[in-house]
Amino acid sequence: MTDFIVRPLSSKWFSATTPVNYLTGLTGTIGSGDNGTITIVDNTATALSIEVVVGATGATAL
Amino acid sequence: MVGTIGSGDDGTITIVDSTASALSIEAVVAESSDQPLSASESGGKITVTLGTDGSGLPDDTKNTATLVAAAISGIGGATWTATASGTGATPISAAITETALTVTAKDALNTATLITAAINDIVSKTWTATASGTGTDSISAAIAEAALSTYVIDGTPCPEAGITLYDGSSTYYVCMIADNTTKNDNWYSFTLTAL
Fold it and tell me: HSE-up of B180 (CA within 13 Å, CB side)?
């Protein structure tokens, strides 16, 4: 059984504000600008890509 | 959809249609002399019939870009609009073979917010998409395929299981398994609530 040792966060030994877990994944963006950048994050896939094409005919839904 | 006929700063006519799925345009010369400019549409093809002079040749005064654009826009039941560039004074002076309007992205339908929602709606997705800011800006053109790149966030090392850090408010951070490396992913948190 684990013994829990409670300490104040101010006694932390790391630089981050709070503890964080190791995390790896894939990320990419499309679009641009403060109000138009889309960020895609995937923490499970090992390969992923994204592209944008224009609908092949007129009046095509997104 | 969008397409152009004519050319030059004062002679390019741009046709825009937001509803048609297929549309083309051509210009032909009226088959007899002294004919007025006219335009019609049939089967998704806009036909501009250029006005002629007394010799049966295209009459530049009858076929300026401004007049041609007005004739195209004036076709009954038109779902398109035509606009002449500049002064519109340059004429269409010869027949133009049929040209299909090309599909373009419509900005209002392709805002970052809407695209983000579409990406997140993909069934069985393992990813999350997020739009920046208000998400109101649009993607208005195709983007070539690009691979997502790898990112790494270092974990906080934990020398001993059971270490619990208290932030002074109500949140506690607990290291459940000792892993004193940056690959540590054994941190958990909980928040105190009143009984």
Answer: 4
